[in-house]
Amino acid sequence: xxxxxxxxxxxxxxxxxxxxxxxxxxxxxxxxxxxxxxxxxxxxxxxxxxxxxxxxxxxxxxxxxxxxxxxxxxxxxxxxxxxxxxxxxxxxxxxxxxxxxxxxxxxxxxxxxxxxxxxxxxxxxxxxxxxxxxxxxxxxxxxxxxxxxxxxxxxxxxxxxxxxxxxxxxxxxxxxxxxxxxxxxxxxxxxxxxxxxxxxxxxxxxxxxxxxxxxxxxxxxxxxxxxxxxxxxxxxxxxxxxxxxxxxxxxxxxxxxxxxxxxxxxxxxxxxxxxxxxxxxxxxxxxxxxxxxxxxxxxxxxxxxxxxxxxxxxxxxxxxxxxxxxxxxxxxxxxxxxxxxxxxxxxxxxxxxxxxxxxxxxxxxxxxxxxxxxxxxxxxxxxxxxxxxxxxxxxxxxxxxxxxxxxxxxxxxxxxxxxxxxxxxxxxxxxxxxxxxxxxxxxxxxxxxxx
Length: 451
Known about the structure:
- The protein has 12 helices and 13 strands.
- By secondary structure, it is an alpha/beta fold.
């Protein structure tokens, strides 16, 4: 808190003119607001009034002084608790002057119960630590049993919350036994004793679900439920645990770790126990449904039995029916055999006729062959003679065209060195070498003078 100002040392020039009351009030207000920025002030609430407009008016006092305070509606509606007479609080306020009455007052921006700042910071640190370790993770939450055989309660024997829980359990389902594991819910050592009570319940394993509860109160009253050791005991408990601590707006570390959180102890009892009336209604509905299903199953099976009985026959009836079927089959088989036999005979006769029609006359064929043989023997010599005459003519014509025959008549063939035949002397030059071919043999000559 800033030190009180020494007004004797304030150096502000006094105006030469005479000030009005409004001007003086504004000047003092500006001086105060400039000197004192937004700050925290601690004290006890006195003369508390909540106006119809929603604004909060009260005085903040200590042993020797008091100051008027106002908290406007837009600020006051953010409070999650109810201010009351005599409560020690800490306010974050702007020091100002209400000009209309010339009253020195605090314009409150926010307000908390005294001591809550340090406790709340400790609460946040522990919450963040346990959250990082995974104690709040959803996968660690155990489901509450739908039909618990026994319910355990961890709370103080003198707590009003215990009476509320017992009353609710008796109203909802009086047939479920209840075991109380007593432990103080506030004060020094309360957190340790609560953790020990939970450990005892876990070790004895008498209950299917545990209720950890207490009534409402300030953050100091509920501080035992913000203990790290208690949080770890809840996390290690193998029994499903539901909490009902304080009012709906109160939150503690124990509630974050628990398997289920209820807004109040009464709500916790409702979560932990099934309503007997609802169970009876459910059982009646199940009974009705089961009866309907059983009747339907019986009717269906009766119909199947009737159907099977209608198809059931005595052995004599079955033998008679089989004999009748055999006789019918024998008659059909004989008719089919006769039909197949007639069809085969017809097809055989038809094939025989076709074969007979296609078979040749071997006598006529032999006579025709003999005639052809005689004609061939007669025509062969004539044909050979004709072919001989033709061959002789062709041989004579070939001899006339044969160069060797020409050479026999005294002619010769002249060839150049490259083998080409000399057909005229115009193409010869003196000194050309020629090859002369005769009918028998040849000679090499040289041209002296072509003609």
